[in-house]
Automatic annotation (TrEMBL), chain A:
<keyword id="KW-0138">CF(0)</keyword>
<keyword id="KW-0375">Hydrogen ion transport</keyword>
<feature type="transmembrane region" description="Helical">
    <location>
        <begin position="148"/>
        <end position="166"/>
    </location>
</feature>
<keyword id="KW-0066">ATP synthesis</keyword>
<keyword id="KW-0813">Transport</keyword>
<keyword id="KW-0812">Transmembrane</keyword>
<keyword id="KW-0406">Ion transport</keyword>
<dbReference type="InterPro" id="IPR000568">
    <property type="entry name" value="ATP_synth_F0_asu"/>
</dbReference>
<feature type="transmembrane region" description="Helical">
    <location>
        <begin position="113"/>
        <end position="133"/>
    </location>
</feature>
UniProtKB/TrEMBL annotation, chain B:
<keyword id="KW-0066">ATP synthesis</keyword>
<dbReference type="InterPro" id="IPR002146">
    <property type="entry name" value="ATP_synth_b/b'su_bac/chlpt"/>
</dbReference>
<keyword id="KW-0813">Transport</keyword>
<keyword id="KW-0375">Hydrogen ion transport</keyword>
<feature type="transmembrane region" description="Helical">
    <location>
        <begin position="36"/>
        <end position="54"/>
    </location>
</feature>
<dbReference type="InterPro" id="IPR050059">
    <property type="entry name" value="ATP_synthase_B_chain"/>
</dbReference>
<keyword id="KW-0406">Ion transport</keyword>
<keyword id="KW-0472">Membrane</keyword>
<keyword id="KW-0175">Coiled coil</keyword>
């Protein structure tokens, strides 16, 4: 039995929506899981009650709300609350699609670089445009840190500018690579169980206990990573937006 | 940071060469450029949809519920504080009332005691005066009675002397000599 850890990332068109230029726009399995994520978030946020004493579902909705709100307030200040819907959408979209992706036979939306890159570029351009709109040319102060001796200032500025433009790269690749690597590792270890069993018979099935235990451990680790990467993505977005709101370091 | 940047460039660069090489189907799915347009379009549709749902419906809803709870809690706390203030005020009023009543009772007690003392003094004085007057009257009576008795004594003594002389001698004595003898013995 051959392990194919890459197969789970295949994009399979379910039906064609139309054409843009010579590109075929299809409703794919990725689109389906994006829809699933949006549906779960909507269900959580809209179907939960608004009682004075919250029930379980309402508690989850309120905890998500408070969690994202406090993250924004602590990193970008009260002015950052302008971007609350954006950051909440990003956090919940990534978190829910990551968690759904851990369920076997599902697809992980954020395991594709194009998706994470699109989200990272959305953040990048939001920061750039809002920063320039809000602060004008003072926005470029983020490239000139305070208290740096004048003779190394050009070097520091070069590094600052470079790191600013590499932000979307690190922002998107961090999420993409974590999801991709986690899912490949899970698939490989889970595949060992079946491979040992089918090739070595009874001894193989007994020997398969070890990779099975590892798979269980890895799954719980992946649940942590799924949440953590969504949080990292959201908090980095907050930190970048903080630059746009308060460019004077 | 720098390391992750370096790491990011590696696979991305590799992906382009692979995608350009045209390994469709057998290639690494995340770097298959043919699926990019579909993914971007569906991401745009669903993310915008999510953003609209979140910003227009979900956050106002949940935020409203949280705010309502906050307001309710604050209102209840303010209400409790108000009631506590009221009971504190009532307690203070009660205590001051009690203190006032206590001083008033003390004043009344003092007053009635003073009055009773004064009355008793007056009564005693009146009684003493009355007694003194009675005593004086009694002394006067005693003195007059004694004087009267003393004047009677001479007559009785003279009579008795005459009788005694008559008994002893059988001769009625002369009244004048008896009186002279009585007077002489009373003087002696």
């Amino acid at each position: 039995m051959k392990i194919d850890p890459i197969h789970q990332f295949n994009i399979e068109p379910l039906f064609t929506l139309g054409h843009i230029g010579n590109h075929t726009i299809a409703f794919t399995n990725s689109s389906l899981y994006m829809l699933v994520a949006v549906a779960i978030i909507s269900l959580l946020m809209l179907a939960s009650g608004t009682q004075l004493v919250p029930g379980r579902l309402q508690s989850v909705a309120e905890i998500s709300y408070e969690f994202v709100a406090s993250t924004i307030r602590s990193t970008a200040g009260a002015e950052g609350m302008k971007f609350f819907p954006l950051i909440f959408s990003l956090f919940m979209f990534i978190c829910v699609s990551n968690l759904v992706g851990i369920i076997p036979y599902t697809f992980t939306v954020s395991s594709h670089l194009i998706v994470t890159a699109a989200l990272a570029l959305l953040v990048f351009f939001t920061v750039l445009i809002y920063g320039l709109y809000k602060n004008g040319l003072k926005f470029f102060k983020i490239f000139v840190p305070h208290g740096v001796p004048i003779y190394i200032l050009p070097l520091v500025m070069f590094i600052e500018i470079l790191s600013f433009f590499l932000r979307p790269v690190s922002h998107s690749v961090r999420l993409f690579a974590n999801m991709l690597a986690g899912h490949i590792a899970l698939k490989v270890f889970a595949g060992f169980v079946a491979m040992l069993g089918f090739s070595l018979g009874a001894i193989g099935w007994i020997g398969g206990v070890l990779p099975l235990a590892l798979t269980v451990a890895l799954t719980s680790l992946e649940i942590l990573v799924a949440f953590l990467q969504a949080y990292v993505f959201a908090i980095l977005t907050c930190i970048y937006l903080n630059d746009a709101i308060h460019p004077g370091h | 940071m720098a390391e992750s940047h370096g790491g990011a460039k590696g696979p991305a660069a590799g992906a382009h060469t692979e995608a350009d090489g045209g390994h469709h189907g057998g290639g690494f799915p995340p770097f298959e450029s043919s699926s990019f347009a579909s993914q971007l379009v569906s991401l745009a549709i669903f993310f915008v949809l999510l953003y609209v749902i979140v910003s227009k419906l979900a956050l106002p809803r949940i935020g409203g519920a949280i705010e309502a709870r906050q307001n309710k809690i604050e209102g209840d706390l303010a209400e409790a504080q108000k009631l506590k203030d009221q009971s504190d005020a009532a307690l203070k009023a009660y205590e001051s009332e009690l203190a006032a009543a206590r001083t008033r009772a003390q004043a009344i007690g003092n007053e009635s005691r003073d009055k009773a003392n004064a009355q008793a003094d007056a009564e005693r004085k009146a009684l003493e005066e009355q007694l003194a007057a009675k005593l004086a009257g009694a002394e006067k009576t005693i003195a007059s009675t004694r004087a009267a008795a003393m004047s009677n004594v001479r007559g009785i003594a003279a009579d008795a002397a005459g009788q005694i002389v008559q008994q002893l001698t059988g001769v009625v004595p002369d009244a004048a000599s008896v009186n002279a003898a009585v007077d002489a013995s009373l003087k002696g």
